[in-house]
Amino acid sequence: MTDVPPQRQLPNGSVNAVEGGAKPHRIVIVGCGFGGLAAAKRLARTEAQVTVIDRTNHNLFQPLLYQVAVAALSADSISTPVRSAFRGHPNVSTVMGTVTGVDRAARLVMLEDGTRIGFDTLILASGSVYSWFGHPDWAERAPALKTAADAILLRDRILSAFEHAELQTDPDAARRLLCFAVVGAGPTGVELAGAIAELSRTTLARDFRRIRPGDARVVLCDAGPRVLAAFPDHLSDYAARRLRELGVELHLGAAVDTIDDDGIVAGGTRIEAGNVFWAAGTEATPVAKWLGVEAGKNGLVAVEPDCSLPGDPSVFVLGDASRMTGENGKPLPALGAVAKQQGAYVGDLLARRLSGRAPPKPFRYRNLGELATLGGSSAVANFGFVRLTGLPAWIVWSAVHLLLLVSLRNRLVVYVNWMWAWLTYGRGARVILQEPQRAQQTAFHPAPAPR
Amino acid sequence: MTDVPPQRQLPNGSVNAVEGGAKPHRIVIVGCGFGGLAAAKRLARTEAQVTVIDRTNHNLFQPLLYQVAVAALSADSISTPVRSAFRGHPNVSTVMGTVTGVDRAARLVMLEDGTRIGFDTLILASGSVYSWFGHPDWAERAPALKTAADAILLRDRILSAFEHAELQTDPDAARRLLCFAVVGAGPTGVELAGAIAELSRTTLARDFRRIRPGDARVVLCDAGPRVLAAFPDHLSDYAARRLRELGVELHLGAAVDTIDDDGIVAGGTRIEAGNVFWAAGTEATPVAKWLGVEAGKNGLVAVEPDCSLPGDPSVFVLGDASRMTGENGKPLPALGAVAKQQGAYVGDLLARRLSGRAPPKPFRYRNLGELATLGGSSAVANFGFVRLTGLPAWIVWSAVHLLLLVSLRNRLVVYVNWMWAWLTYGRGARVILQEPQRAQQTAFHPAPAPR
Lengths: 451, 451
Known about the structure:
2 copies of one chain form a homodimer.
Chain A: E1 26-30, H1 34-43, E2 49-54, E3 58-60, H2 65-69, E4 79-81, H3 82-85, E5 92-96, E6 99-103, E7 108-111, E8 116-118, E9 121-124, E10 128-130, H4 138-141, H5 148-167, H6 171-177, E11 179-183, H7 187-203, E12 217-221, H8 233-246, E13 248-251, E14 256-260, E15 263-266, E16 269-272, E17 275-278, E18 282-284, H9 287-291, E19 301-302, E20 308-309, E21 312-317, E22 322-323, H10 336-354, E23 370-373, E24 379-382, E25 387-389, H11 390-404, H12 408-424, H13 438-442
Helix pairs in contact in A: 1-10, 5-6
């Protein structure tokens, strides 16, 4: 493949059109998260011509993304270039592009820039995006944590809030700047809130002269009555207790009514917060629209027990964009572990299909357990038969996440940073790249000096 | 200082106004680069009340910034938070803000957000900015490499160029995307051009399927006849030879006439380049305007042999913003080493002044040598009596830069990344955060598919 010169005019507008006699099977994978990567890795060892499409150039290890937002890790230390993952597999091509549609009749995937990519088999593993409960205007006020760019934005906002508060002469404005409201008390919200509290009470504690960073308010809101609702009751209770000890205020059973310049209103109570972060509702990427099929709740596409689209065995949807019922009769959760297992399953299914072997048994999710950190070397872990809290859970969490990181280089760099943080409470990535709150901040200076 | 609650109303609008009987001497340092940091470190050990103002929250180790642009290092691994550098010194305050003026009569520094900061002694170490020879419209087309955000922008552009070229069906457009023109053949331009060539010929070489990254053109332009003109002739010649071996085209004695969407025209020759980077002219930050004094060439402020402003011994200007004549009768070069030595000198001078001791002798620059890397484990080093080229120079360069990094944590992380790159040719930070060329790229698709 590497000897195809760029100047070759390709027929049909499709960049991977096949000419001449050899007709390898073309598999296109949309999305290179946990699911897409697992499928592509399996299929790289087949004869198929595989094309992996992603909006970015990297696979992102999302479970550690909150650590980028709180300046503990740099974004690249949890990212792996998709291309380099398939360097040794000339049958795998990588495309950085944004999918805008699928032409099922012509077997083409359309990208935003006009590129069209032909397929014989299509795997849609494009995951989910955050949704703001029908309030698109909340998105800018309450950014969510999904991409590397999101994490840098949150980091800029969190670090800038302390910098701006230090210069405030209006005490109300300073208090508002030092209030962080996190909406959604699932694992992402819990980990983010705990980490912000830890940041303010340890790393930043002695670095300011006029404000006391440890006085920062961190408020975790949820419409439901419990944090980590998917965990067993006693782990959920432990997490709530531990978060309170860290200084996180829990505001539960309170749905968000309003998000505005002054903060949020949740369950009728106003919380004056200069910083609001969103970790609540998600919805599927517009896979149903691309395919022209009916979308279920939150845009999910219902799939067969082998992850294929009902009525079309050459199209697969997996991970957060799909809906499949588990053995307990409930839908499988939107977890990286589900996507990863489904990706490996579909890869195996297609490898068998290509070599004429019998298909595998229907997909079955193996629940390997759930983990969430709470800040301050504490976590909760639920492995079904074993349930851990506190430091033991945190040690397991650290080890598992180091092992799950895609590249050895990332493991080394994350390990150095964690050891450093553990020894010094230091955060290795305290860099503000842009000043996101400048405009908002100026409002706190009613009488700026003439320029 | 830490017990000052944020709600205290401060008189005079100045955040560091001093109340009551104790009147410590207030020293304000603008800019926390090599010069400002050196001055602040010395003054932290005095009784003075020191305020360090910087546009960002971090000191940036600029000599390694080009490595961020070519995805070898993450931005935070060469950045140190200004605050944490002075954690143990309660007499040092840090302010993140942009200076817009100085009121010399009222002894106030004004910030963009309206904050005013009072001083008894002022040290201006705000450095230089790039200037585009009176063509402000070139700035966006040919971004320069000065801040961490700049480096991320360049990285996004460089990595995106290869991604977009891979999808091109128009061979001319693909060739243009894979042409990188660097304007200015001083150390920054040479290091950047060499590093882009190395990136395309090693790290990326086997990662693409339709383009050959090694075919990328890297063109280094300069109005002068030599690269690294400040180095002795034989080092300059060596650098030129080595760059050519790496695949860098040298286009010397050719001033830039035009920069447009298609590339540049230099010395009458058009170079079709999808990526143009600026490493040519710089000018001082507007220090002369702030002070109301006459600016010399490139906005530089002429200073006394002790770095003070003529006629005002309480104001100092140092580093890239100042002009001082060296022992050889020529102006001191705009180097980090000059700024660092001047910063330490002014810090010492003020420490003596505060304790009633005699002033030091006039500032004298100790030239410790010059270094520049050329890509591919090669460099040139000029220590006056010893001149090195190739691998020995590169080993010296690596050791010196590791030692000069501000924090131990940064040294560890940079070392891990360098070892990794050396063993694998891998680049640790191949992350595209934003897609900067989307708009430009779309122009290369004359007939995009309907959406």
